[in-house]
Amino acid sequence: MTDATPRQYIVLTFDVEDWFQVENFKEYIPFSSWSSFDLRVETNTHIILDLLDSFSFKVRATFFILGWIARRVPDLVREINLRGHEVASHGNLHHLCTRQSSDELTEDLSISKKFLEDLTGQEIHGYRAPSFAVNNAILDIIRQAGYRYDSSYNSFSMHGRYGHLDLLKFRKKGVAVEVAHDFFELPVSNLNIGKKVFPLGGGGYFRLLPFQVFKQGMKSILLREQAFIFYAHPWEFDPFQPRVNKASPIFKFRHYINLGRTEKKLKALIESCKYASFTTCRDYLYLCENKKAGSI
Asked: How many CA atoms are closer than 13 Å to the CA of 236, on its beta-carbon side?
């Protein structure tokens, strides 16, 4: 990379929830049964933390932590913070924002924010909605709850639960979109070819796509936008997790495909992008606001 080349940023994000809390399994695993399961999220999150610490260059990430999880493994939240990563909110009980009233959502947002702040002793800036289920009205509720940014928009429209945001009328700073004064949306990265959107932000798409295909798509986005926002979940690093045999074939395919390859694949991806800066949502947003991120 020459001095004239804009700096490229990779924002790694992890939604900290356990295998039995995913939306695809809610029909088979009711909320009332969650406490009966042994937690695997702590071990799986440590796999991620140790992986990020294994590189010779600095790799920082944002961990969107579910309040229900934080209450049961508070030391994990503290360790994520002590290792230099950003702690952010994934809500309190993993209910879809689009199925909550304004008062219910406000309560969920406020409870999770305050609890994480009490654990870390730091302000919580960011939020990510379960299943990316947001809309513009929900963004306003998130802002009013005291968050500085949301990172819940996935522009791939063929997934039934993903929300829709009208962001075209707002000003961009890097890939961040200022949707209100001092409040931003950080959309998950996807590949746009013409009018088509191809899902590339992470999760099941990362596990499903061949490594070279994902890497080339990611580099294409980096060349165009100088930033890539990636997401994954700790349960995606756990090939030995319990199976939900009652789930539909499509849900089982989405959840279990290539779980045994995630850790190795992410390690290879990070290693192949060592020329980039691996930063948090909070720090990337700071760079954007101060016009220090690449050519912003």
From this structure: 26
Neighbours of 254 (CB within 10 A): 17
Chain segment 129-151, per-residue pLDDT in tens: 999 999 999 999 999 999 999 99
Report whether 276 contacts 8 (CB < 8 A): yes
Question: What is the separation of C-alpha 54 from the centre of its chain, rounded to a whole number of angstroms?
Answer: 21
CATH class of segment(s) 9-289? alpha beta
Rounded-to-integer distance, Cα 81 and Cα 63, Å: 9
Q: What is the pLDDT of residues 263-281, one digit of tens each?
A: 999 999 999 999 999 999 9
Both tokens of residue 267? 């390690």
What the block records as the tokens of 26 is 């809610």
Q: Is the pTM of this model over 0.85?
A: yes
Report d(CA 18, CA 23) in Å as an integer.
11
Boundaries of every domain in the chain: 9-289
Token pair, residue 187, equals: 């959309």
Strands of 69-164 (E only): list them: 86-89, 126-127, 149-150
